[in-house]
UniProtKB/TrEMBL annotation:
Organism for this UniProt entry: Deinococcus rufus
Signal peptide feature range: none
Xref: InterPro entries: Acyl_CoA_acyltransferase, Bact_Acetyltransf, GNAT_dom
EC assignment: 2.3.1.-
GO molecular function: acyltransferase activity
Keyword tags: Acyltransferase, Transferase
Domain N-acetyltransferase, chain residue ranges per copy: 2-154, 170-317
Name this protein carries in UniProt: GNAT family N-acetyltransferase
Length: 317
């Protein structure tokens, strides 16, 4: 008999294991799930995490929350997973039914979820429940040990000759750069506006940036890399570590409009690869919308290999 209820304090890791088993390419920890819910509620957003149980055993996890970078008070994001050996036994349906009822009670307008095209159950499960597929995304992986920087050896010196400096968050902090958090927030706010996404971008508040980016325990300060020209910050990339994977994960890579197409993003990624190698990380993972042609082209040239696409599914209420 499957029952669904809010996650209890001792069940966060079990909930994470259930989700990670269902989505092994997107592993999470209980700490990740708990932190996300706490952050969401701290920002005044609506978020909940539910578990499906068979007796005392957690066999599935479902969560809904809101996207700080594309915020709308009545639009939500969904995560849902059931351990593979317990799929097709009602746990996923029970989780979705509980989430749907909760969201209808909150006057929700829509909810989105990403599902890989090659997932054995997710596309069919979502389609049967009224979700419609839309924008496609690619997650790509770079084999750090096999990466050859040789073909890119002249790029950074050419940019340095034009006055472009590549510095890390560690460097900027050591130099006691004035107003550093505010300047980094302004840079991210600038470069993220043109990133293709399924929902329109909304401003990222300083609180969210400070807590979710600078305050992320997985942030690698040496791999938060900034391109500067004179007193201006003109580009950034950043890598995060995870407690459930030995891969490093790319946050936002972006360059201000005036400097795009001149090699800045590539040089930033090369600097991040150097840090990944120094940390002994075997893999860097990143994701991009399928219509983000410039960034996909950069990743392809660097040797990132794409996974099967993920599709953004929308369910309107």
């Amino acid at each position: 008999m499957i029952t669904v209820r809010p996650v209890q304090e001792h069940e966060w890791e079990a909930a994470a294991r259930a989700y990670s088993a269902a989505h092994p390419h997107e592993p999470v920890s209980g700490t990740d799930l708990r932190r996300r819910q706490d952050e969401q509620r701290g920002w005044g957003y609506t978020a909940a995490t539910l578990v499906a149980l068979d007796g005392p055993e957690v066999v599935g996890m479902g969560a809904y929350f809101q996207n700080p970078g594309a915020y709308h008070p009545r639009r939500f994001v969904l995560d849902l997973g059931v351990v593979p050996e317990r799929q097709h036994q009602g746990a996923g349906g029970a989780l979705w039914a509980a989430i749907e009822a909760d969201l209808r009670g909150r006057g929700a307008e829509s909810i989105r979820v990403l599902a890989r095209e090659d997932h054995r159950t997710a596309p069919g499960f979502l389609t049967r429940r009224g979700f419609t597929g839309g924008k496609r995304y690619f997650t790509s992986a770079l084999d750090v040990g096999a990466f050859d920087p040789g073909p890119f050896a002249t790029l950074r010196p050419r940019l340095e000759a034009r006055g472009v400096r590549i510095v890390s968050l560690t460097d900027l902090r050591a130099a006691r750069t004035p107003d550093l958090p505010a300047r980094l927030h302004a840079l991210m706010s600038d470069v993220r506006t043109d990133v293709p996404r399924s929902e329109p971008a909304t401003p990222l508040s300083f609180q969210v940036f400070d807590e979710a980016v600078l305050g992320d325990p997985g942030l690698l300060p040496d791999a938060y890399v900034v391109a500067a020209h004179g007193d201006d910050f003109i580009g950034q990339t950043v890598l995060f570590a995870s407690e459930v994977s030995d891969a490093l994960y790319t946050g936002l890579t972006g360059v201000t409009r005036a400097w795009r197409g001149q090699g800045v993003a590539t040089v930033l990624k090369l600097a991040a690869i150097d840090v990944a190698r120094a940390h002994g990380a075997p893999t860097i993972r990143t994701d991009n919308a399928s219509d983000n042609a410039p960034m996909l082209a950069i990743n392809d040239r660097l040797g990132f290999v794409r996974d099967p696409a993920s599709v953004s599914y929308l369910r309107a209420f």
